[in-house]
Amino acid sequence: MKPLNQYIDHTILAAKATEADIKHVCSEAVTFGFYAVCIPPYYVNTAKNLLQGSPVKVCTVIGFPLGNTTTAAKVFEAKTAIENGADEIDMVLNIGLLKSGALKAATEDIKRVKAVIGNHPLKVIVEISELSEDELLKACEVCLEAQADFIKTSTGFSKGNATIQAVKFIRKTVNNQAKIKASGGIKDYETALAFVQAGADRIGTSSGVAIVTKNNTNTGQNY
């Protein structure tokens, strides 16, 4: 197992996030050696410039947080993000399509984003709190069919967060065909470690500093 800091996507996705907040998160990511920062699309170029010369990756979100924007809009967002310097893309699954049984359309939505970002890792947020077990199984199958690199549990903006049970279920379903990003409500060292041990390859959290310093009084937010 790698050091825990190398699993962390240090995250700030709140609507009220300012440029000063982005600078602070990037500074923390460099100081604590996090794998990436996950920030709103508007600030991708800012973060890229701030992190120049460091190994920290820039990740941003597409179709966030609901996932039901048009595929064309998601493609444009993703293309622009890559042009602005994003290293990784986290897009939200169109949950309504999945629940409607329109699996081909849900798959195509992901495929078109994957096509426009090339070799950059694509994480698909399936929002586990909105899915039954059978729907989560279908979501995993859709992600595999679309050749997503990661399946991500949650946006942090819905009614529930990541769960150990869901991560284990996803790992059993996809085996090693895709990686897993656990995100939403992970705020302390013990919880983060448990998710990694359950099969998560990456942890999305706004509490990265609290996690790696084991300072559980600094709870951060869900996203």
TrEMBL record:
Keyword Manganese annotated: no
One GO process term, biological-process aspect: 2-deoxyribose 1-phosphate catabolic process
Active site: residue positions: 90, 152, 181
Catalytic reactions of this protein: 2-deoxy-D-ribose 5-phosphate = D-glyceraldehyde 3-phosphate + acetaldehyde
Pathway(s) this gene product operates in, as recorded in its UniProt entry: Carbohydrate degradation; 2-deoxy-D-ribose 1-phosphate degradation; D-glyceraldehyde 3-phosphate and acetaldehyde from 2-deoxy-alpha-D-ribose 1-phosphate: step 2/2
EC code(s) of this entry: 4.1.2.4
GO CC annotations on file: cytoplasm
Enzyme class: lyase
InterPro entries xref list: Aldolase_TIM, DeoC, DeoC/FbaB/LacD_aldolase, DeoC_typeI
Location within or outside the cell: Cytoplasm
NCBIfam families: deoC
UniProt name for this protein: Deoxyribose-phosphate aldolase
Taxonomic source organism: Mangrovimonas yunxiaonensis
